[in-house]
Amino acid sequence: MTLGDRVRKEREARGWTQPYLAELVGLDASTVNKIELGKSRVPRNFLRIAAALGMDEAEALRILNEARMQEEGVAPNDPPVMTRFRVKGSAKPLGAFGPLPQMPPQGNKTLPVLGYAAGGNTGSFRISDSTYDVVPCPPQLEHVSGAYAVFVYGESMEPRYFPGETVYVHPRLPVARGDFVVVQLSDEGESEPTEGIVKQYVGQGDEGLILHEFNPKSVDLPPVPLARVRAIHKIILAGSS
Questions:
Q1: Looking at the structure, do residues 118 and 181 belong to the same domain, yes or no?
Q2: Does residue 74 carry a pLDDT above 50?
Q3: What is the spatial distance between Cα 193 and Cα 17, in angstroms, rounded to a whole number?
Q4: What is the CATH number of the domain that holds 212?
């Protein structure tokens, strides 16, 4: 079953029309039609569509990964995109890493965008004292003190997040293995965060914080020293700003 066939099957099972599904995810009905017909075989907005259809995230990532391999002419061996985590050392509970950022109070209508692009192609962003931009606040975060947004830089988290997408952060939720997070880091000797990265949380080992990225290959990154970590905040939503 192709990616487009799966979208059509899930949509029809819910009794939805193409225009209705398109409206749910903020797309044109013609875009959904192209996906179902196979004219857009690796749609960058597939994960949004899959979420609207209630598909399991790991399954959606697997379907998207297979579609990408087929597009590239590679025979799929059903490799999982969601890695089997390998946490080095004894796992430790996620603790508090400093105060939450000073952000808008409850009743948010907009959210501040934290940081701006760093130099190079690292996918990180710089954190400053001033607000870089503002975006509309999604309903899930309207009454969450300290909520903020981040623009995605680089391709290290494709196909989960694409460059230019906005991720929305709930800084007060607990973080568990497999969650996607914004990690705020400080330079050596600094107490305030100066750098941020968007990654997948694996855990904490004796050597530091274990994170995961998907590109240029799906791999756990070298441990980040806990002395550099100022905050680990859970991403709850993503989309175009």
A1: yes
A2: no
A3: 46
A4: 2.10.109.10
- Under a CB-based contact definition with an 8 Å cutoff, are residues 182 and 167 in contact? yes
C-alpha 195/C-alpha 150 separation (Å) is 12
Q: What is the full DSSP assignment across 14-79?
A: TT--HHHHHHHHT--HHHHHHHHHTSSSS-TTHHHHHHHTT--HHHHHHHHHHHHHHHTTPPP---
User: Three-state DSSP class for 231?
Assistant: strand
Domain count along the chain: 2
Q: What is the domain range of residue 36?
A: 3-71
pLDDT digits (tens, 9 = 90+) for 179-193: 999 999 887 777 788
Q: How many CB atoms lie within 10 A of CB 74?
A: 10
Question: DSSP 3-state assignment of 2?
Answer: coil
Are 105 and 145 contacting, i.e. CB atoms less than 8 angstroms apart?
yes
Question: How far, in Å, are 51, 193, 194, 198, 217 from residue 204 at the CA level?
Answer: 29, 19, 21, 16, 21
Q: Is residue 101 part of a domain?
A: no
Model pLDDT for residues 116-175, shown as the tens digit of each residue: 655 444 567 887 666 778 888 888 888 888 899 888 888 888 778 888 888 999 988 888
Residue 104: inside a domain = no
Answer yes or no: do 58 and 122 share one domain.
no
